[in-house]
Amino acid sequence: MRTRSATSRKVAAVVLAAVTVGGMAGTAPASASSPARAHSWQTENLGLHKAIVVKVLKRLFEDGDTSVVDRYIRSDYIQHNPLAPNGTAALKAFAGPLVTQFPDLKYDVKRVITEGDLVLVHSNVVLTPGTRGTAVVDIFRFDRDGMIAEHWDVVQQVPETSVSGNDMFSTVSAPQTNQPGPRWWTASSKAVVTGYFDQLLVRKDTDAVGYLAPEYHQHNPAIPSGSAGLREMFAAFFSQFPQMIVERKRVVAEGDLVAVHSHYRMSPTDRGQAVVDIFRVRPDGKIVEHWDVVQDVPETSANDNTMF
Q1: Which fold has domain 6-157?
Q2: CA–CA dist 170, 167 (Å, integer)
Q3: Which CATH number fits domain 183-296: 3.40.50.2000, 3.10.450.50, 3.40.50.720, 3.40.50.1370?
Q4: For an engineered disulfide with 258, which of 169, 250, 253, 278 has Cβ 3.0 to 4.6 Å away?
Q5: What is the pLDDT along the chain (308 residues), one digit of tens a residue?
Q6: How far apart are CA 297 and CA 215, in angstroms?
């Protein structure tokens, strides 16, 4: 992750802290690896949940409409953004002045993945036109009443250049759409990605690159496209950091898109990084494209919920 200036880091952090939404402090947290088996109310409302999340982000942070907070977000939410306390009061108080300060702010939603009670949104947040802005992944959990009940996020400044030549958001593989594939594809896509992820990052076995398509497209700005460079990079990385620990916290999958929210640590005592990896899986079971957002876990937090 590239280093940003103190001013832009503070502004972007406050903006994304304001995005935070969540649930009851006494509510049990989501599964540590993936959404629980979907109940009928979750399955029936997947499209509605997706629409609500996009509406909240757009109306609140582009239009300054705080009425969406009371309508769609629980007042006693669980917040995982380390810069924001629990509750919606600060969110409503901040949104109006934010739009006044940045009247051209754009919350450019790139892709949305929905599974069970979770909605994951991958966006480019730009405060001022002409700037690169930040890459953001927000994860929202809904309660049975259709209210946003919990929120996690990961935020990274968009760098000026990338090794692969790809930006952090576009879809390069065919078909060039940001929409997930059909839902019947979800289970097989999730199995492929979790198999790859665990073999490479949990067991540190670089033979996992066998899961990748020959034309594997990379959107991490520091990594080239293709499997050969990836294998070499991780082999060197595992040699340098033999105590590296990667813990999968939750997986959200829809169609050919699978997102993994994880805690990366270089050693057992390292605070580490919060990471969301997003993979696209071809019909033949090969992973063809990858995006990610990476954020250092800070020493202190405005809430007691951790980033995970």
Answers
A1: Nuclear Transport Factor 2; Chain: A, (3.10.450)
A2: 6
A3: 3.10.450.50
A4: 253
A5: 333 334 333 434 434 444 433 333 333 333 344 454 555 545 567 799 999 999 999 999 999 999 999 999 998 888 898 888 888 987 777 777 878 899 999 999 999 999 999 999 999 999 999 999 999 999 999 999 999 999 999 999 999 999 999 999 999 999 999 999 999 999 999 999 999 999 999 999 999 999 999 999 999 999 999 998 899 999 999 999 999 999 999 999 999 999 999 999 999 999 999 999 999 999 999 999 999 999 999 999 988 899 99
A6: 33
